[in-house]
Amino acid sequence: MNFKQLHYFLTTVKKGSIAAAARELDIAQPAISQQLASLEREMGGQLLTRSFSGVVLTPAGQVFLNHAIKLVDDFNLAKNELNGIFNRIDCVVKVAMLPSIGNVLSMPLIAEVKARHPKLTLDISTGPSYSVKSWLEEGNVDIALTYEQEVNPQFMTVEPLIREELHLVVSNAATNNEYQHLLSRDTISFWEISQFPLLSPSTKDALGRLIAHYERLTGVSLQHDRAYSGQLMTGLRQVMQGEGVMILPTSAVFHLQESGLVKLLKIVDPEMPRLVLAATNKTAPLNDATARMLSIIKQVVASEQKQHHWCGLLAFAQQAQSRGASLSGSLISN
């Protein structure tokens, strides 16, 4: 028995089928089936009943499930504790973030660490929201910069960073009359977005789920029939070619706005705020290097917000002000 077999077993049980587990793990179904069969031979009996509709735990499988969860948790705890020791030695901090966040934070964060914190080494990974969440859960990164839609309090400890504003992104060079009248505006109502082909991710992504939430909230159905790969840079190229519009934070497109390539219209009625957080894994000890990196991230977020690269309200500043107001009230009352 090895960790891979346990991981495949737990993912298959969680997803309800080998096919769904293969999609989640991004590997071929036969590879999972082979590992599960090997695990069952080693355990001495069938753990899963397989059918066209999926998999179901056998009585033995239910017993094994509890042990498998504990074994994986213990393994991750040991791995994270060792990572804490190793990180204290070489001070490498692994930070994962979405491309929209990476666009505004990666370069200034790298520059800040290099200039002022030579004992720290920053390792940045970018990916979709569900991948960033998975990397943190599996202990592959120390800090995940993500959105409130992806928070899982079972294994995450979070610190709010910024409540960003979402905007409609339109090509500034639009020659199509469909978009031309938008270039003289600064805001747009949510219902008006339904008039334009929207390039949006699926609901597997945090942004896709947020857009779907506002569709339900307002009763407005947006046009999602325009082909979109889910890749931010590809989507922005499509926008600049006049193929559609996107809903994004300024962090994702401030550089294109400054270059005059896109126009941003703040979404109102209702507004679409989204809370960005820094998350760490509860099972991992928060070593000095990770704590230092969290502090640096906050500094860089504040700097980018001040330069209007990232429009929104600093959430950690609000927290500090609330605590200060509470303390002042307490002192006055005493």
TrEMBL record:
InterPro entries membership: HTH-type_LysR_regulators, LysR_HTH_N, LysR_subst-bd, WH-like_DNA-bd_sf, WH_DNA-bd_sf
Protein origin, superkingdom: Bacteria
GO molecular function: DNA binding; DNA-binding transcription factor activity
Keywords: DNA-binding, Transcription, Transcription regulation
SUPFAM superfamilies: Periplasmic binding protein-like II, Winged helix' DNA-binding domain
Domain HTH lysR-type stretches: 1-58
Gene Ontology CC, one term: cytosol
Family: Belongs to the LysR transcriptional regulatory family.
Name of the protein this chain belongs to: LysR family transcriptional regulator
Organism ancestry: Bacteria, Pseudomonadati, Pseudomonadota, Gammaproteobacteria, Alteromonadales
